[in-house]
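2024-03-11 09:14:02 INFO queue: dequeued item Sugar phosphate isomerase/epimerase, len=290
2024-03-11 09:14:02 INFO validating residues
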Amino acid sequence: MTKITNPIGVITDSFRLPVREALVKAKEVGADGVQIYAVSGEMDPANLSQEARKELRSYIDSLGLQISALVGDLGGHGFQDKHANPEKVEKSKRILDLALELGTNVVTTHIGIVPHEENEIYYAMQQASEELSQYANSLGAHFAIETGPEPSVHLKSFLDTLTGTGVAVNFDPANMVMVTGDDPVQGVYTLKDYIVHTHVKDGVRLREVDPRDVYGMLGYEPMSHEKIAEMATSGPFKEVPLGEGKVDFDAYFQALVDIGYQGYLTIEREVGDTPEADIRKAVEFIKRYK
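2024-03-11 09:14:37 INFO prediction written
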């Protein structure tokens, strides 16, 4: 069996508890690190003074945890709407500043579906992503786009138009299986130069689905995590506990080893009534490969 040495993370929001309680839970279930939403509420950069940032970082350190990444996903149409982009780009930069202060150089995000034709939406996304890429490059950091909305080959062709790896990839194998039907193992090799963070999640695709219905598109309903969770429970695809879906983890983890990926394997659980039990099982599932 593939042997992996990657640290294990968990998204604190998956516990559906306040941040501090979720941090304690993450430690209890055996995680090495945590990924935290930093978009609104107490973790919004605008709501965190320098003092509060220092205090939070020392609290996380005291638990013996690291931050694997922040989630800076601003929802809606990602960066497809050129009129909304200046404000979103600005906020994304502030989330990256916060990430660096908390000890991580990765912010994960959804930018919206990359169109197949180079149209106005494509150029709006490209312009916003280029600005973010240059900012992240200057800090040795990354905005990591989550895989799923488009096939990995197409995502790579978009990333190749940007400067450096300031905009990189947060690889989520389940999204590929559930939405585009793309092969996550091949996707790892395709996107190998860009992968800076991963999600460990499993799922099945029950029937074909238009990615625009899931992730939104200008002219479609905007994306929201609540909507995706609802679809993953009762819709065209289903998120399931690790090992029960269509992600071939033996081959997936081997692919990550092959490309020399050393970063976090971060557990995300967006559905189900017993998140803590599911996350505990997920940690045990990954540890079998160690």
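2024-03-11 09:14:37 INFO annotate: Strands lie at 8-11, 33-37, 66-71, 106-109, 142-146, 167-171, 195-200, 202-205, 237-240, 265-267.
2024-03-11 09:14:38 INFO item closed
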